[in-house]
Design brief:
The chain has one domain. It is mainly α. 70% of the residues lie in helices and 0% in strands. Helix 5 packs antiparallel against helix 15. The chain is globular, with a radius of gyration of 21 Å.
Length: 377
């Protein structure tokens, strides 16, 4: 699918990915309710800071990971499918690009969390939130295999689980692209089949497969809309806007469950099928098209997209620091439910993430690629 007329980077998608990462941080606010059991059994989300404003993130922020997978599929089919299919990108080159982008920060945060968890263990006789912090799980984590089904449970910097799944998705994507598969229909069928498998087996590899190949479908659909049906682009915009209005109405004004009267139907459609196959695809498609045709320009805030990976990997270590502060009596447990603490935490996280990207992620990526003669984003 020809995308030569597209800009070199879609800043709107980068910014949206960062928002998805921060939504996961809201979802993980429950970690501050940790009282020695996992998952925490005393979470009252309505007590979390500014719950009325950020309710959707506290309640459904974990779906930011589904958006990650979808966006990854979109970007990989856009940037890599044709070069891999045409043999312009070798497997080694492709893999080194991923390694240089993902591994350095993963390695550092893994070591930091390991040290902090050891200190927390000495102080509290238990680990903070994630309990399986032993040598076996350290090896799984350092190998990017923490969520391949070999684990006993959550361990170390556990949010890396989604990247662990993406490693498998990258390998499968390369095989598909190299074999000249991956057209629009293929991607949609893989997505449907994988989602059905996930619904039945509940293994996150199928969750990732479903969203990643749905992202490939969305990329190709977006290309078709841009090349052949540009006058109808506003229909995509309207679909995305209406979808988000439905979400807003459901969470802040009235409950769809009370209107329909069947909670199981609402849970299946509105909280699973609707966001995955309508809301997220319409959002990604409309953001991409809006930037391609010039209706949207988020380049001035591109730094927001740059900090996505660092904010995702740094938020649990930062939570662990505050967990240690609580155990030493420096703060009280009620602190975590105060709006001022929410502001302080996010300010620290965003600042640290930006500094990490500028002074660690980007330099390390450049050094690895220069030494290995790797090109690409």
């Amino acid at each position: 699918m020809n995308s030569n007329l597209w800009p070199a980077r879609l800043y709107a998608l980068d910014v949206s990915r960062s928002i998805a990462a921060l939504s996961v941080v809201f979802w993980h606010w429950q970690h501050f309710a940790y009282n020695g059991t996992f998952p925490p059994d005393n979470v009252n989300r309505s007590n979390q800071p500014l719950y009325g404003l950020f309710r959707i993130f506290y309640e459904k922020g974990s779906m930011g990971v589904d958006y990650f997978f979808l966006l990854s599929g979109f970007i990989f089919f856009w940037l890599y499918k044709k070069p891999v299919s045409d043999r312009d990108v070798t497997f080694l080159n492709f893999w080194l690009q991923r390694f240089s982008r993902l591994y350095p920060l993963h390695f550092v945060t893994l070591i930091v969390v390991g040290l902090l968890q050891y200190i927390y263990l000495l102080r509290n006789s238990s680990f903070f939130v994630y309990p399986f912090n032993d040598i076996r799980h350290f090896i799984l984590n350092i190998s990017f295999a923490s969520h391949w089904g070999l684990q006993n449970g959550w361990s170390f910097n556990a949010p890396i689980w989604s990247v662990s799944i993406e490693i498998i998705l990258y390998l499968l994507f390369f095989i598909v692209a190299y074999s000249h598969y991956g057209d629009l229909v293929f991607c949609l069928l893989v997505s449907f089949a994988s989602y059905a498998a996930f619904y039945k087996l509940h293994h996150d590899i199928f969750r990732g497969l479903s969203m990643f190949f749905l992202g490939g479908f969305v990329f190709q659909f977006t290309s078709i809309m841009f090349l052949k049906y540009r006058p109808y682009i506003k229909i995509i915009y309207i679909t995305a806007i209406i979808s988000w209005l439905m979400v807003f109405l459901n969470y802040y004004l009235w409950s769809l469950a009370s209107f329909i009267g069947n909670l199981d139907i609402v849970e299946l459609f509105f909280h699973k099928i609707f966001p995955i196959y309508i809301l997220f695809p319409a959002t990604v498609c409309s953001l991409a098209l809006a930037e391609i045709v010039g209706d949207l320009n988020l380049r001035p805030i591109s730094w927001v997209g740059d900090i996505t990976y660092s904010s995702y990997l740094l938020h649990f270590p930062l939570q662990l620091v505050f967990g240690l502060a609580l155990s030493y009596g420096a703060i009280s447990s009620s602190t975590f439910n105060k709006p001022i603490f929410l502001l302080i935490f996010f300010s620290l996280l965003i600042s640290l993430s930006y500094l990490t990207f500028i002074y660690f992620e980007r330099p390390m990526q450049r050094v690895i690629r220069e030494r290995c003669s790797v090109r690409g984003r």
